[in-house]
Amino acid sequence: MRFLSTAFACAAVITAFAAPAHAGATTTQAVGVVQILGNAPSCVDRKVTSSYTGKRNSLGEVLVKTTVKLTNNCKNAVKVKVAWSWAPDSNCRSISKGRTASESITTTHDREPYQKTKTC
User: Are 95 and 44 within 8 A, CB to CB?
Assistant: First the structure.
């Protein structure tokens, strides 16, 4: 219960400092391409596979290599990166129309490293 009251108090403080939408609002119009960051478009196919490496880490845990194969079926080139659960995201990659790219990571067998594919 104490957690909830603290959360509501924090939300109230944040709301109190938020500027109203009409107070001195100015509008600007962006010139050029607007890029929305988030999940990769559905026309980018993702195939996730895992395979045992036959190796173990220093604690004796079995290591597994997870590979994400990305195929661009969109009308144009796309820029995407893979979000991993237990490691930093991959680098941003540009994939041309009809082309394929792969990203891999090696982790212990009990982890699900692939989160999602994001635009960048």
Answer: yes
pLDDT digits (tens, 9 = 90+) for 30-85: 333 334 457 889 999 999 999 999 999 999 999 999 999 999 999 999 999 999 98
Q: Taken in order 72, 77, 95, 120, is the CA torsion positive or negative?
A: negative
Helix H or strand E segment including 16 = helix 2-17
Are the CB atoms for 100 and 71 separated by under 8 Å?
yes
Tokens 């119009």 belong to: 29
Burial of 61 (0-12, 13-18, 19+ CB in 10 A): middle
Rounded CA separation 11/68 (Å): 39
Under 8 Å CB-to-CB from 18, ≥6 apart: which residues? none
Judged by average pLDDT, the poorest of 21-25, 35-39, 71-75, 87-91 is 21-25
